Amino acid sequence: MPSKSRNPILDLVVCAALVLFAVVIIWGTRSIPPPFFDPVGSAAFPKYAAYIIIALALAIAARALLSLKSPAGSKEKPFKEEPLFALYAVGVPILYILSMQFGLLSFRIATILFIITLSALLSRFDKRTVLFSGIIAIVFGVGGQYLFTEVFYMDLPQ
Q: Among 86, 89, 14, 90, which residue's Cα sits nearest to residue 53?
């Protein structure tokens, strides 16, 4: 399957940089002291996040390599430019962070509204997508609140 990437070489360079960055993070976690009260460990999150970054970068690199081997297709853009979508993708997360920073919304409510709003805007208010996003939003909002406060013992905006 040919890649939709416009520049596979750039994809490979970015993937190599991400893998290098993740390796530096993994190397840096060796100096984190072991925890006293946390059963998971202080270095677990950065280490596993780095492993996920490496796995995703390798998947993108494999796709880019396959597109280099396939014959060149047409020169038309594989996407339609939507500047308003870019504004949504930047503006809604900023509003999400600011709403919690200034104490307007709790983490749970802000997360639910963030996921539903962004998915609704990006899907052009497709009913099926908004319904499915609403379910995911509730799971992430309520589940994230529970996970961060009861498992990881982190203070979240109330």
A: 14
